[in-house]
Amino acid sequence: MRLFLLDVSQSIPVSTDEAWSFFSNPANLPEITPPSLQLRITSELVDEMYAGMIITYRVSPFRGVTVNWVTEITHVNKPHLFVDEQRFGLYRFWHHQHHFRAIKGGTEIRDVVHYSFFISPFDWIINAIIVRKKLQEIFSYRRRYLEKKFGKMKAESGG
Question: Which residue, 96, 124, 130, 133, has most beta carbons within 10 Å?
Answer without folding.
Answer: 96
